[in-house]
Amino acid sequence: MQNLFDIDNGERENLGITKCASCGRLGSPDSPKLLHNGSGGKRILLVGSQPTKKDDETGTLANSSFWTRVELLLRSHNIHMLRDCWIMNSVACHGASPNPKHIECCNPALRKFIDDNNPRLILAFGMDATRALLDWKKDFGGIQKWRGFTIPQSCYVCPMFGELDFHEENEAVNTLFRMDFENALSMYGMEPPQISCKVEVSDDIEYFMDKPVVAFDYETTGLKPDASGHRIVSCSLSDGDRTIAFMLDNRNMERLKTFLVSDVAKVAANMKFEEAWSRVYLGVKVKNWLHDTMLMSHVLDNRRGITSVKFQAYVRYGISDYDSEIAPFLKAEVDNGNAFNRIDEIPVDKLLEYNGMDSFIEYHVYQDQMKEYGI
Ligand code: SF4
Hints:
The protein is of the alpha/beta class. It contains 13 helices and eleven strands. The protein has helices at residues 9-15, 53-58, 65-75, 81-84, 100-117, 127-133, 143-146, 171-185, 253-260, 271-282, 293-300, 309-317, 348-373; strands at 44-48, 85-89, 121-125, 151-152, 156-160, 199-201, 213-220, 232-238, 243-247, 265-268, 289-292. The strands form two sheets. It has a six-stranded mixed sheet with strand order 6-9-8-7-10-11. A five-stranded mixed sheet has the order 2-1-3-5-4. Helix 5 (100-117) packs across helix 6. It is elongated.
């Protein structure tokens, strides 16, 4: 068990504990600052919120009824908590509920431990642990949003309810916890998927005319096409193997329309958007819609905040934040569906890369959702 109370600065550096001075939890002088324990024989990392008072008193971690519950569940899978796992927390010091700054200050130690020890599975118990382990930068939401996903990082990171979520005997929470736990353990040792996308700047639309299924996506000057002056700026198409993106202009507009009214089965994320813009700006109705990844995300799991292609890219493929550079330009300054965004200020190469990624991810999400739905 690593007790940070007595170690020198050099050793702190080695462990990644370098931001204690700016972390308010230094004001808990009685806390021995417990970093981790367990031998990690099976290289499973269990991450909770913070050491308990009893942890502080005993100098060991995981002294609570919650951790006993975890221990029993692990034992039912022949996993010994202290022998086979490592135990850590989002912060190493006991105190008030950790805030995002505490978690950020203590995070280098957790990240360093992961880099040095290369776990084969990580279970994140509760929101503090989830926040500490995931690099999702947008609307983080609560544990309800994250629990149950198995998110590919260097290994699978599996958020589930934590100590604070068990206020009272709540059978629903218990059942979900057990389900998430089983699901997480099924990912033990599995290699996370490696998918990478090369977006070609090309308007070779004809290449896709004999493909059975193609995902397509528009980038536009706003949310709704109806106000005068709005236009589709770029378009991308993907069949999962090849992804192209191009600026829409007079050289390719008619060819795009030919694709849209063809028999090729089509996939989009929020297809009513592509349909509306096709009708108003291009004057055609899209033929042969096959799949909408947003609608299917909702059918498969009706929680809020999880249906966007960006969120799906993260929880399914570990692809994070590919839109962060350009997202501010795609949002109008006023909250009005007819307003104009600043898409014309985005460098063309960045816009097409982003646009292509959307189609590529949509195609892969479509394929995965079909399997999950049993089609
Ligand atoms: S929580 Fe971590 S960063 Fe903050 S004082 Fe304790 S050991 Fe240092």
